[in-house]
Design a protein that fits this description.
Elements: E1 33-42, H1 46-49, E2 69-79, E3 89-95, E4 99-103, E5 111-112, H2 130-142, E6 150-153, H3 161-170, E7 174-179, H4 182-190, E8 196-199, H5 206-213, E9 218-223, H6 227-234, E10 237-245, E11 273-276, H7 286-298, E12 306-310, H8 315-321, E13 330-334
Parallel strand pairs: 6-7, 6-9, 7-8, 9-10, 10-11, 12-13
Antiparallel strand pairs: 1-2, 1-4, 1-13, 2-3, 3-5
Helix pairs in contact: 2-3
The structure holds NADPH dihydro-nicotinamide-adenine-dinucleotide phosphate.
Organism: Eutrema salsugineum
Keywords: Oxidoreductase
GO molecular function: oxidoreductase activity, acting on the CH-CH group of donors, NAD or NADP as acceptor
Length: about 350
Amino acid sequence: ILKKYVDGIPTETDLVVKLGETIELKAPKGSSCFLVKNLYLSCDPYMRGRMRDFHGSYLPPFVPGQRIEGFGLARVIDSDDANYKSGDIISGITGWEEYSLLRSSNELQLRKIQLDDGIPLSYHLGLFGMAGFTAYAGFYEICSPKKGESVLVSAASGAVGQLVGQLAKLHGCYVVGSAGSEQKVDLLKDKLGFDEAFNYKEQTDLDAALKRYFPEGINIYFDNVGGSMLDAALLNMKVRGRIALCGMVSLQSLSSSSQGINNLYNAIPKRVRLEGFLQSDYLHIFPQFLEHVKGYYKEGKIVYIEDMCEGLELAPAALVGLFSGKNIGKQVVCVAKE
Ligand code: NDP
């Protein structure tokens, strides 16, 4: 439950977990609802935007005093909707609670999950869920990659970034990732197959760092953070480079609206294309994404790192940890295993 709207970087105490309410585990007759038991919840940076009193975004703010919601994986346990039956596993927007009563609508992005041997169920929230799909849609639809091109990915060890980097490598690109700790840098190079990686927190001059890793410039920047990394990338783009504006996690907790961007002019002489996107605009290619990425996964060509915390009571810490980089890989909360 969100206590009140948040200013600055959110803390665990901005959310409260209330335990012990008893409910009847039934979907009321005639309600067209179905009741689910929530199994896994996804922690996503966009949820920070819903913790402030701002109505101009693509999603409305959470309501203080009410339980929050987000992407989750759940098992249907009772249903008054002919499309969902007891035992189905679904993904979509669900409540941050043990059980949720849902009514089907487009906004919930509901999807039935086909269980697949060898794929951990929780991966349907990360690699085969919204985060993985964001990487896929952003890389192929926005970045227009070509073999041999140079690619920079920020927040590279996170839920989205780790897949962008691996897809870029499979496409024959040279890939460099930035991340916020030595442990993450090692993961990028040793486990995720990035050509190079660096800890952005250790750089006094990001422009100089990018010039070291990209002496001939950057073709593609997949931007998960905005702010000073975007500004430095703008100084290092090649002619006709592409910047996919995926997210700006570095700005999400700032109260000022300043973007910290001084180098946008460079996009003109270099004819750089900057394009923001929302994964939800590309859902028509979701089946193609699943087939493509499941194939890579089953062939052992990609791996995925998850950061799993056990228990709803740890969910507030897991969510706010995204904004200080505590998560290593896709942050998921396990509410119940089955
Ligand atoms: P991550 O798993 O990457 O977690 C967030 C990471 O952001 C942290 O681990 C941390 O990594 C980094 N971070 C936190 N604060 C800062 C900061 N001040 N400056 C720089 N980095 C910071 O999250 P996701 O992969 O789920 O999301 C990545 C981005 O993609 C986000 O911006 C998100 O909003 C966006 N997104 C966009 C979608 C779309 O449709 N456009 C859909 C889904 C996600 P580190 O330790 O490396 O700093």
